[in-house]
Amino acid sequence: MEHHPKPPETAMSKLKRRSLITAGAALPVLAAAAPAAAQTTILVEPGNVQQTIQGFGGMNHSVWIADLTAAQRDTAFGNGSGQLGFSILRIPVHEDRANWSREVATAQRAIALGAKVFASPWNPPAHMTESFSGGKRLRYDMYDDYVQHLNDFDQFMASNGVDLYGISVQNEPDYAHDWTAWTPQEMLRFCRENAGAIGTRVIAPESFQYRKNQSDPILNDPQALGNVDIIGAHLYGTQNADLPYPLFQQKGGGKELWMTEVYHPNSSDSADLWPGALDTGEHMHRALVYGRFQTYVWWYIRRSYGPMREDGRISKRGANMAHFSKWVRPGYQRITATANPQANVYITAFKSGARIVIVAINKNASSVYFPFTVQGGGNATVATWLTDANNTLAASSSPTMTNGSFGAQLPARSIRTFVIN
To answer: What Gene Ontology molecular function terms does this protein carry (predicted)?
Structure first.
């Protein structure tokens, strides 16, 4: 995983390991035979509400790679033409306070454009840690001091006009080869005994692979859970079967569920590789529908494999994210829709008031036509945008909805957003 202050591409052993881990989650590309004519009607149910969306976004880390430029901040968090429409920024809590000011400018601009900002630490200050079993951990007698460190960062950002939405206890405590490790019991103890003194929303445990043994103890301990506001997780190598979290649905009432970091399917391919970039859109669909996450947060915003290319323009992977982030805004609710009407077709739907947003992905090598029915829908013109091999977030033909029904073509290897007002 690209978490190193040196140019990350030189850390080949780490990159290869994470690439292998990530490859475990890569979704198989089925044989691209022409699909049979679709018979299934895609049913959208605005009355069947699922989770509330908090937003989509990515990471800025001005110490490990260069900060976003002023223009790139607008591309990331603006929502005009050629912009990503991101509504979440993740920043690091540097162990060295001298670096805190480096994260301010991008965070200020994100806030000004309406985004939420949250922060994750990789390490406490060095004097708070000790070595054990070849790694390092927060000293048990330093838990209160660590709370003060996190609060100091929160207050520093607030004094610079950035009110953090939340702060994490630890980035990837279970993948801590190069940063601070926490056992599930250590995390539980901190959440139970110390996290209540943190002055903003608390995020935990940020497992690198959504390992439930990291978060189950928190959910099963009312005192710890009372001090945690957001269960955060990363999805590196997480298998599809592990996306649902019944224990959270049972015990997480009033808490939020955030996917706080991933890149998918890898960090080696260009983000403009097509149709490979559709894997990103499918991964978002699965995280939202089966994982029921309220956010989807990428790793570095600007990177060769990320949503923004090094030249500051939106990549094809970024366009897949933007098909959600530009039209599914914070506060929208995911609603039930026919999620997988045929092989390699993925449907996700949302609403805000009377507005309905549908994101449709067709990974097949042939176009396919579907009838759509929106329960309780009336008559409207449906605005659409398309990304495929030849188009990127391009306005597309507008079907007419009559009595809640319309038909639409999903071009071969494409992602298309429909907005019904």
So the answer is: hydrolase activity
Which among 2, 103, 256, 261 is annotated as catalytic? 261
Question: Which three-class secondary structure state does DSSP give residue 223?
Answer: helix
- pLDDT tens string 298-325: 999 999 999 999 999 999 999 999 999 9
pLDDT (tens digit, 9 = 90+) per residue, 12-68?
333 333 443 444 433 333 333 444 454 699 999 999 999 999 999 999 999 999 999
Cβ neighbours of residue 133 closer than 8 Å, sequence gap 6 or more: none
b or e along 15-35 (b: 16 or more beta carbons within 10 Å of the residue's beta carbon)? beebbebbeebebeeeeeeeb
Model pTM? 0.92
Contacting residues for 158 by C-beta, under 8 A, at least 6 apart: 164
Residue 261 bears catalytic tag: yes
Our answer to whether residue 172 is catalytic in this structure is yes
Give the confidence band of 396 by pLDDT, cuts at 50, 70, 90: very high
- Tell me the C-alpha distance between 109 and 140, whole Å: 37
| Catalytic choice (2, 95, 103, 172) | 172
3-state secondary structure of 355: strand
Buried b (16+ CB within 10 A) or exposed e, 283-320: bbbbbbbebbbbbbbbbbbbbebbbbbeeeebbbbbbb
The pair of structure tokens assigned to 8 is 């990350």
